[in-house]
Specification:
- This protein is α/β, with parallel strands linked by helices and 300 residues long.
- It has two domains: 153 residues, D-Maltodextrin-Binding Protein, domain 2 (3-Layer(aba) Sandwich), CATH 3.40.190; 114 residues, 3-Layer(aba) Sandwich (D-Maltodextrin-Binding Protein, domain 2), CATH 3.40.190.
- Helices cover 40% and strands 20% of the residues.
- The strands form two sheets. Strands 2-1-3-10-4-11 form a six-stranded mixed β-sheet, sandwiched between helices.
- Helix 2 links the parallel strand 1 and strand 2.
- Helix 2 packs across helix 8 and helix 3 runs parallel beside helix 4.
- The longest helix is centred in the N-terminal third of the chain and has 21 residues.
Length: 300
């Protein structure tokens, strides 16, 4: 009987140990959840997200799942419910996630040596000629949690005394450009990055050039807004520091490979990473202060 009790107790302990192992972060039952922001072409992000997932799983020796939700705010709330462990998150989304859940920026995305970008107000060449002419017009924003596609246009309109008659949220930067091109709206707000040295345009209009080859001729930039610090790679606050560093280093290694350079460039125009700190995003907090609002006010 004593031997039976011993064997039974041993089996219980081994079973508990096995369950604990199976539920550890990075196991098949509890993979590391890596979220992406739905900033542009969802199919492209999904396809490249699968490649990123395969690389991280192999390089880290841990199970990783890449998730692509339908909105910017969904990424923020995934941190709050611990469904997200790490994310490439937009600048405003990071400020909101930091404000609500203590999310920490670890790396900043770099594009062609630049760690900041701008917003732009766009319109058709035969449309409004100035910001003032947007009074009483229909306007397309990206998302309530978009810095270039919502926060900065609001700040500009407040400064210029512009009152929009009707607004729509297109969800993605390419969708805003399309709405302007197709005359669904009079103007819109998207991201802007400077052209390449050879003059190649790199702002949001490039996202629809395949569908609309004449987009650069048909759509003009009325005004730039910003600057905006580039999006960060951010982590859930209570994630082990060792794991945060391991994931960050894995991504820095990936972008130095031919495959990784292509995947990350196609995803978010990333050409490198640099160390990030929370204070890097104080500029945008200043923009919010100009509007007299906190980050959370934009999603109520």
């Amino acid at each position: 009987m004593n031997l039976f009790k011993f064997i039974f107790s041993l089996l219980v302990v081994l079973n508990l140990f096995s369950c604990t192992q199976n539920n550890e972060l990075g196991s098949k039952k509890n993979p590391i959840k890596f979220y992406l922001i739905p900033a542009q072409d969802m199919q492209g992000l999904s396809d490249n997200g699968k490649k990123l997932q395969a690389y991280l799983t192999k390089d880290l020796g841990l199970e990783v799942v890449v998730e692509l939700p339908i909105s910017y705010v969904a990424v923020v709330e995934a941190f709050g419910s611990k469904r997200a462990d790490v994310a490439i998150i937009n600048t405003f989304g990071y400020i909101l996630a930091n404000e609500k859940y203590g999310v920490e920026a670890k790396l900043k995305l770099v594009n062609r040596g630049r760690d900041e970008y701008y917003g732009q107000i766009i319109a058709r060449v035969d449309g409004p000629k100035s910001i003032k002419e947007l009074n009483g017009k229909k306007f397309a924003f990206v998302d309530p949690a978009s810095t270039s596609g919502y926060i900065l246009p609001l700040r500009l309109f407040k400064q210029e005394g512009v009152v929009i008659k009707e607004q729509v949220f297109a969800s993605r930067h390419d969708a805003v450009v399309t709405a302007v091109y197709q005359r669904q709206v009079d103007a819109g707000a998207t991201f802007y990055t400077p052209p390449d040295d050879d003059g190649s345009i790199k702002d949001a209009r490039m996202l629809v050039k395949t569908q609309y080859p004449d987009v650069y001729d048909k759509i003009k930039i009325l005004k730039l807004t910003g600057p905006i610090p580039n999006d960060p790679l951010a982590f859930r606050k209570d994630l082990p520091e060792e794991l945060k560093n391991k994931i960050a280093e894995s991504l820095k290694k990936y972008i130095k490979t031919e495959d990784g350079a292509k995947v990350l460039l196609d995803m978010y125009h990333i050409t490198d990473f640099k160390v990030a700190a929370d204070k890097d995003y104080d500029t945008v907090r200043g923009y919010l202060k100009d509007l007299g609002r906190k980050a959370q006010d934009f999603i109520k």
